[in-house]
Design brief:
single chain, mainly beta, Porin, 1 helix, transport, ion transport, porin, voltage-gated monoatomic anion channel activity
Length: 276
């Protein structure tokens, strides 16, 4: 794939990942094993609010084809087929879910040195269609996305965004929710490996005149341990401690506090991912 502006979903993704990824409030155990034939088997168990769920998955990678199959405790089967360069500079993704097959969709992504295009169509009689276009370079990009409901003939969404990316920083502005909200974010990395960073994000919703401002960051204590923190203007404080116990095996402990309601018990979550 060419190193162009990336997909529209990449705009603002770095800030979103820093402020949401690994902030857990449940208990999760994941075990993965690998075979010489390119198959990865993963078993996951999750306990949240007294309810236990889980799934078993198999990931098969062969040349330019990736097949991901998961079966959960509700007997739902999710399958994703990803084919790269079936047509030059494209990626095709087909997702199916049984017994709710109508939740499946087909997505085609096209990459160009100065543009990217995605089209997604649902597997229904009157499918929803999503289209996004991004123009620019790996440094500067702007784009838009729209969703169309073929049943009602209405636009379900339209969003526009712009981003500027440098080796040690990234800034983005996204106008979303059909023009009802605007989100601006900035990420700054402090090391070449990008393990330590600071992030700030502000979102304004025009219909309610509500502003949400969040600051956070991640600090590499050593080559095995990361600490993450975030705090917004509504008093929600989140913290994460992540340690690599063994190569590729990671223990994550997360918590969330409401600093404006200290009488409420904080939320805690633990995740253990074992990859022998």
């Amino acid at each position: 794939m060419s190193k162009g502006p990336g997909l529209f979903t990449d705009i603002g993704k770095k800030a979103k990942d820093l402020l949401t990824r690994d902030y857990i409030s449940d208990h999760k155990l994941s075990v993965s094993t690998y075979s010489n034939t390119g198959v990865t088997l993963t078993s996951t168990a999750v306990k949240k609010g007294g309810l236990s769920t889980g799934d078993v998955g198999a990931l098969y990678n062969y040349k330019n084809t990736l097949v991901d199959v998961k079966v959960d405790t509700g007997s739902n089967i999710s399958t994703t087929f990803t084919v790269t360069d079936f047509v030059p500079s494209t990626k095709t993704i087909a997702s199916l879910k049984f017994p709710n097959y109508e939740s499946g969709k087909l997505e085609v992504q096209y990459f160009h040195p100065h543009a990217s295009l995605t089209t997604a169509v649902g597997f229904t009689k009157s499918p929803a269609v999503d289209v996004s276009v991004t123009l620019g370079t790996s440094t500067f990009a702007f784009g838009a996305e729209a969703g169309y409901d073929t049943t009602s003939g209405n636009l379900t969404k339209y969003t526009a965004g712009i981003s500027v990316t440098k080796p040690d920083s990234c800034a983005s502005i996204i106008l979303g929710d059909k023009g009802d909200s605007i989100n601006a974010s900035y990420v700054h990395h402090f090391d070449l490996l990008k393990r330590s960073a600071a992030v700030g994000e502000i979102t304004r919703r025009f219909s309610t005149n509500e502003n949400t401002f969040t600051v956070g960051g991640t600090i590499a204590v050593d080559h095995l341990t990361l600490v993450k923190l975030k705090l917004n203007n509504h008093g929600r404080l989140g913290a994460v401690l992540q340690n690599e116990l063994m190569p590729k095996s990671i223990l994550t402990i997360g918590s969330e506090f409401d600093t404006k309601s200290l009488d409420k018990a904080p939320k805690f979550g633990v995740s253990l991912a074992l990859k022998p």
